[in-house]
């Protein structure tokens, strides 16, 4: 053994052989565990483990006195951001500030004292960001969705908050998210009329895509209000900004959440959106497999998070709305971030 360590070449060959055997053993175990799910699943797991070995690098401390650089304050995951949660051991805000935020900044904080009594808030798994380890993400095709609920009930990571919002709340939230230098003084006062017109278009023409409903209903309202050419031109930039938000966010008219509700209470039907929490989704594609209507398709994820397709963007809460049984939020760009209340 002493000779082995004295001969770098021999030592290198020995280590290479050992690592090769370890790699074979790991692949064998992964094939045994995940082989029934397909070759791609096995290869994905092998790739993750291999990255853990290949990408380990030595970090040498800088020489001399180096001033501390300002750190980046971590953002609380939307699932833990519950301002109205009860105070106490299970309060997610307390747990985030005292435990999770310190870990996110690389600090070694004290252990949570409430862990001794097995008290921990719900949804703390959201702190672990899965964006860097998955290869695929589900893509929501709203025109195929029937609102069966299979995706969000069977997601093993609670990464799919199925959300239903009233039409007026959708419009109001989209207006708030589209300000960006625009005063919205012409669009905001007609939001209620716009919502009523949109509902009329949906009811009279069920086959009309929701993305087209917004333009049709807005044009109808502007005509009904008797706006002259000058006022229409002044409101057009505001409409285009809001419409861009609405069009890029997939919404579905479904029997359980729109038709059935409308039949019982006129004007109360809501639009369904299947959004994906990018921090919780690990890309298992179970939602794609269980969807009976093909409303979720597997899409390849690039190195960076994909565009706001199917709600796959980092949620940033902007406004809260509550209208009877519908409770939801629209986020930066187009992300609704809370689940439909029972």
Would you kindly provide a written description of the structure presented here, covering whatever features stand out?
The chain has 342 residues and is mostly helical. The chain has three domains: 1-32; 71-128, no CATH class; 136-331, no CATH class. The chain has eleven helices and six strands. It has helices spanning 2-6, 8-34, 39-54, 92-104, 150-154, 167-177, 191-204, 210-224, 229-248, 255-264, 286-290; strands at residues 136-140, 162-166, 270-274, 296-300, 317-323, 326-331. The strands form three sheets. A two-stranded antiparallel sheet has the order 1-4. A two-stranded antiparallel ribbon has the order 2-3.
Helix fraction by DSSP (H/I, runs of at least 4): 40-55%
Cα end-to-end separation = 68 Å
Number of domains: 3
What share of the residues does DSSP label as strand, in percent?
A: 5-15%
Annotation field: number of helices: 11
Uncertain parts = 303-342
Number of strands: 6
Task: Briefly say what this structure is.
The protein is built from 11 helices and 6 strands. The chain has helices at residues 2-6, 8-34, 39-54, 92-104, 150-154, 167-177, 191-204, 210-224, 229-248, 255-264, 286-290; strands at residues 136-140, 162-166, 270-274, 296-300, 317-323, 326-331.
Task: Quickly list its features.
11 helices, two-stranded antiparallel ribbon, two-stranded antiparallel sheet, elongated, 10% strand, single chain, 3 domains, mainly alpha, 6 strands, disordered C terminus, 342 residues
């Amino acid at each position: 053994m002493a000779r082995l360590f004295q001969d770098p070449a021999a030592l290198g060959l020995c280590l290479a052989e050992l690592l090769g055997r370890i790699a074979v053993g790991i692949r064998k175990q992964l094939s045994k565990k995940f082989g029934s799910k397909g070759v791609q699943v096995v290869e994905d797991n092998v790739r993750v483990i291999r990255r853990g070995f290949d990408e380990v690098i030595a970090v040498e401390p800088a020489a001399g006195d180096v001033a501390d650089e300002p750190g980046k304050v971590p953002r609380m995951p939307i699932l833990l951001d519950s301002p109205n949660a009860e105070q106490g051991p299970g309060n997610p805000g307390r747990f985030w500030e005292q435990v999770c935020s310190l870990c996110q900044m690389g600090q070694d904080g004290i252990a949570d004292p409430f862990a001794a009594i097995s008290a921990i808030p719900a949804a703390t798994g959201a702190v672990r960001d899965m964006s860097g380890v998955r290869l695929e993400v589900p893509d929501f095709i709203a025109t195929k969705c029937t609102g069966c609920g299979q995706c969000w009930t069977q997601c093993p990571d609670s990464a799919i908050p199925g959300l239903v919002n009233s039409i007026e709340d959708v419009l109001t939230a989209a207006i708030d998210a589209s300000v960006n230098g625009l005063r919205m003084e012409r669009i905001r006062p007609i939001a209620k009329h716009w919502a009523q017109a949109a509902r009329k278009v949906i009811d009279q023409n069920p086959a009309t895509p929701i993305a087209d409903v917004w333009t049709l209903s807005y044009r109808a309202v502007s005509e009904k209000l008797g706006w002259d050419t000058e006022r229409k031109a002044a409101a057009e930039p505001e409409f285009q900004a809001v419409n861009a938000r609405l069009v890029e966010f997939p919404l579905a008219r479904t029997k359980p959440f729109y038709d059935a509700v409308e039949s019982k209470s006129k004007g109360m039907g809501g639009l369904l959106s299947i959004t994906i929490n990018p921090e919780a989704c690990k890309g298992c594609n179970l939602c794609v497999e269980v969807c009976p209507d093909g409303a979720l398709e597997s899409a390849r994820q690039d190195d960076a998070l994909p565009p706001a397709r199917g709600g796959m963007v980092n949620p940033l809460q902007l406004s809260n709305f509550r209208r009877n049984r519908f409770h939801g939020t629209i986020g930066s760009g187009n992300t609704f971030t809370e689940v439909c209340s029972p």
